[in-house]
Amino acid sequence: MITLAVKYQCHPGKSDDVIAALRRMSALVKQHEPGCHAYQISRSNDDPDALLLYELYTDQAALEFHAQTAHFKEIVQGEVIPMLASRERGLYTLEIE
Fold first, then answer.
1. What is the mean pLDDT of each run of 10 residues along the chain (97 residues)?
2. For the chain, N or C: smaller number of CB within 10 Å?
């Protein structure tokens, strides 16, 4: 399994809009991406504009499929990224479940 952890720093006051877009994204991921086992969004307790995404994929192919979907391109690339001050991604291999 592949874990993708992404830190979003939203432009000030944009985190609620980002979360709303990611809720729509989450529903589409659950509906159309059987290789995605988790798609979770958390907000920092210290900074309301800091978000952490936790995504778990069966394998590299499932992760690559995710990045090529129309909903990723429309919602994440088209809506979410413009509302971010920064985006930091990290890939991990799941060792303990």
1. 98 97 97 97 97 98 97 98 98 92
2. C
